[in-house]
Design goal:
The protein is mostly helical and 127 residues long. The protein has 2 domains: 2-32; 46-121, no CATH class. Helix content is 51%, strand content 0%.
Length: 127
C-alpha cells in the first residue's frame, strides 16, 4: 500500500514538474504584441505614392472621353488641380459636402490618406 501511494506521489510531482516546465517560455514582447507598421509620410512621391493610389482607385471612373463628374485624373496636371482646390482631400476623407470616394467603395486606409495629405501639404511636387 505504501509503495502504491509513493508511486502516485512521484507520478503527481512528475506531472506537475512537466506541466510547470512546459509553461515556462521566453516570449518576446514584440512577438506577442506586434506593432502596426509605421506610416512614412516623410518620403512621399507623386509617382510612387499618389499616382499609384489614384490609378488603382480613381481612374476607372475618372478617365477617358467622358470622365465621371467631368473630372479626369489621368495625369499630374489634372491631379494637382483636384489637390489644390481641396476636392482630392475632401473626397478621400469622406468629409461633409464632398462625395465620398472611391464611389461605392471602402475608404482608403489611414496611411494612404496621410501620404496624399503630406504630398498636398508639400506643395504637390512632381516627383
Amino acid at each position: 500500500m505504501k509503495a502504491k501511494l509513493l508511486k502516485y506521489v512521484f507520478f503527481f510531482f512528475g506531472m506537475t514538474t512537466i506541466i510547470l516546465l512546459n509553461s515556462c517560455t521566453y516570449d518576446n514582447i514584440e512577438d506577442l504584441y506586434p506593432q502596426p507598421p509605421t506610416c512614412d509620410t516623410l518620403n512621399v512621391t507623386f509617382a510612387q505614392d499618389v499616382l499609384t493610389v489614384i490609378d488603382a482607385n480613381c481612374t476607372v471612373c475618372h478617365s477617358g472621353s467622358a470622365p465621371s463628374g467631368n473630372l479626369s485624373l489621368t495625369n499630374y496636371a489634372d491631379i494637382v488641380v483636384a489637390a489644390q482646390n481641396g476636392s482630392l482631400i475632401g473626397v478621400i476623407n469622406h468629409r461633409s459636402g464632398w462625395s465620398p470616394m472611391p464611389k461605392n467603395g471602402a475608404k482608403l486606409d489611414e496611411c494612404t490618406i496621410k501620404k496624399i495629405e503630406a504630398w498636398v501639404a508639400a506643395g504637390t511636387p512632381n516627383n
